[in-house]
Design a protein that fits this description.
Helices cover 24% and strands 26% of the residues. The chain has 11 helices and 19 strands. It starts with a strand and ends in a 10-residue tail after the last strand. The radius of gyration is 20 Å and the shape is globular. By secondary structure, the protein is of the alpha/beta class. 45% of the residues are buried. Strands 3, 4, 5, 10, 11, 18 and 19 form a 7-stranded mixed beta sheet that branches. The protein has a 6-stranded parallel beta sheet with strand order 14-13-12-15-16-17. It has a two-stranded antiparallel sheet with strand order 1-2. The protein folds into 2 domains: 191 residues, Medium-chain alcohol dehydrogenases, catalytic domain (Quinone Oxidoreductase, Chain A, domain 1, Alpha-Beta Complex); 133 residues, NAD(P)-binding Rossmann-like Domain (Rossmann fold).
């Protein structure tokens, strides 16, 4: 039998999250037991809890931007010790045998990675529950070492927002001399600006919203382009080597494609689904441009990203909340009323009245 712990769960798509007692699985020899200190709030948590994607299994304990402290380790664990500060992101397991897993790209596991919540443990069939809770049990292979010196609560969203923005910048080899544009200034966008600047790129924010200049420049942008201003978009034509599109809803990407330099790539990291209007292939063929996608990152690259953050003192801009405020936080996220990520102080669970 495992440990009985508390968390906050969604029990349907249209009711508030509530206090939920459940049982974590018993630790296996390669497992790390983690006391959860902080958990970021991702748009995926909102979409999952409210069944926007149609795949919710209730009760659901969301949360996959987890930072905590190791409280116990299995006999086979070699990388972590009691007292270590660690992180857990969007995955807690994979098949570990396919070519993607062998390449450290567990997020593309050919048999499907095991999600931190709303999934099934591939060994014992138990449900996976996420970080809106007191504790989590994870194989050491999917646990990350937190660098010394980072503010742990502000580092929590690095486990999803951070790696999602970092991975395409690394894959497309951004460095000094690269010309990078970031579309959208939210949880993903603000991290993409910070990372691209730290990598030495010339960085531009492209935004539909007025009044973002000061914030964008403070986060690392050299330039700001208003996508609603035809003159500014025309001036940016054929300029960018890489565009990181962080917009989480359906939108027209064709105007952004026109700002790609020959051989440039627009990579989507925010929107899952069809693109409407459709992408016009002519500007792609005529300038060898590409439209691509990128999804989180593998465990080795996530550790690399955390180490990069430790070296460059990069964390997320956050607002800390109590777990009791989670439904309000979801509503504010939908209204884009946060700069730029909510993080739950899980000590607030101690104040939760049993329901």
């Amino acid at each position: 039998m495992g440990n009985a712990i508390r968390g906050y769960a969604a029990c349907s798509g249209d009711t508030p999250l509530r206090l939920f007692d459940f049982e974590r699985r018993s630790p296996r020899p390669d497992d790390v037991v983690i006391e959860i200190l902080y958990c970021g709030v991702c748009h995926s948590d909102l979409h999952g809890a409210r069944n926007n994607w149609g795949s919710a299994k209730y009760p659901m304990v969301p949360g996959h931007e987890i930072v905590g402290r190791v409280t116990a380790t299995g006999n086979d664990v070699t990388r972590f010790a009691v007292g270590d500060y660690v992180g857990v992101g969007c995955m807690v397991d994979s098949c570990r045998a396919c070519s993607s897993c062998g390449a450290g790209l567990e997020q593309y596991c050919e048999r499907g990675a095991t999600s931190t919540y709303n999934n099934v443990d591939r060994h014992d069939g138990s449900r996976t529950y996420g970080g809106f809770s007191e504790q989590i049990v994870v194989s050491e292979r999917f646990v990350l070492k937190m660098p010394d010196g980072l503010d742990l609560k502000a580092a929590a969203p690095l486990l999803c927002a951070g790696i999602t923005a970092y991975s395409p910048l690394r894959h497309w080899r951004v460095g000094p001399g690269s010309r990078v544009a970031v579309v959208g200034l939210g949880g993903l966008g603000h991290m993409a600006l910070k990372f691209a600047r730290a990598m030495g790129a010339e960085v531009t924010l492209i935004t539909r919203s007025a009044g973002k200049d000061a914030d964008a420049r403070a986060l690392g942008a050299h330039h700001v382009v208003a996508s609603t201003d035809d003159a500014q978009m025309t001036a940016a034509k054929e300029h960018f080597d890489l565009i990181v599109d962080t917009v989480p809803y359906q939108h027209d990407i064709n105007p952004y494609v026109a700002t790609l330099a020959p051989g440039g790539t627009l990579v989507m990291i925010g929107h899952f689904g069809k693109l409407e209007p459709a992408v016009n292939s002519t500007p792609l063929l005529m300038k060898r441009r590409a439209v691509a996608g990128s999804y989180i990152g593998g465990i080795p690259e996530t550790q690399e990203m955390l180490d990069f953050c430790g070296e460059h003192k990069i964390v997320c801009d956050i607002e800390t909340i109590d777990i009791q405020q989670i439904d309000e936080a979801f509503d504010r996220m939908l209204a884009s009323d946060v700069k730029y990520r909510f993080v739950i102080d899980m000590a607030s669970l101690n104040n939760a009245a049993r329901m």
